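User: Can you recover a sequence for this backbone? Please restate the input before giving your answer.

Assistant: Of course. Working from this structure:
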């Protein structure tokens, strides 16, 4: 299972140092919030650009913003690798995802806990990743919503039935126990914020996540 530590829970005054502590992870998850789509206000393009020289990991940029199309060109120039946009924020979802791919980045569609999988079926044939929010978006440290497991499993079944190869990412409340539930349901990428960066040794927490996911594979 691939891991995506979220810098939303890192030390904002030492982001470059903190991402080096999680160099073993496949992704760096960057939550970009505008204070409109969600109440919180976090990172922007300048942070992506500033961090890019400090890591060769996949920069997984999760846009919790209104009008995400307006940021795409700047994010590409800043060094973003993968862009996630919310179904709930995109009235022209197909066009937005197409723009991401035309810019040479990987495209991800994101759905909130209360949004059904069925609404994104028309775009599942060409996205690179789907993010199932396992908490309501907007801030870190929330508890994993177990009712989202059925959605993860539904998506995994659809993926297999249609011969698709997108990644299934989960975000919210991930720790060494809930990652097992997500993995068993069909998730392939896990975002973890406070569990990783809230510890004295973030690298050890990544290893605990890997071991938790590996237990599911061994069972």
């Amino acid at each position: 299972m691939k891991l995506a530590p979220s810098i939303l829970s890192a030390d904002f005054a030492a982001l470059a140092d903190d991402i080096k502590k999680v160099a073993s992870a496949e992704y760096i998850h960057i939550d970009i919030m505008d204070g409109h789509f969600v109440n919180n206000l976090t990172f922007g393009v300048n942070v992506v650009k500033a961090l890019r020289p400090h890591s060769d990991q996949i920069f997984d940029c999760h846009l919790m913003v209104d009008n995400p199309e307006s940021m795409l060109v700047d994010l590409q120039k800043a060094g973003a690798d993968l862009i996630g946009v919310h179904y709930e924020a995109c009235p022209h979802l197909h066009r937005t995802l197409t723009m991401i791919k035309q810019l040479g980045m990987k495209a991800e569609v994101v759905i909130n806990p209360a949004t059904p999988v069925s609404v994104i079926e028309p775009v599942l044939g060409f996205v690179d990743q789907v993010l199932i929010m396992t908490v309501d978006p907007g801030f870190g440290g929330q508890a994993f919503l177990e009712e989202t497991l059925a959605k993860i499993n539904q998506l995994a079944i659809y993926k297999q039935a249609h011969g698709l190869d997108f990644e299934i990412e989960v975000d919210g409340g991930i720790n060494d126990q809930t990652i097992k539930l997500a993995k068993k349901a069909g998730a392939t990428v896990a975002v973890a914020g406070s569990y990783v960066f809230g510890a004295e040794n973030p690298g050890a927490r990544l290893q605990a996540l890997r071991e938790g996911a590996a237990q599911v594979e061994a069972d």
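That completes the design. The first strand starts at residue 2 and ends at 5.
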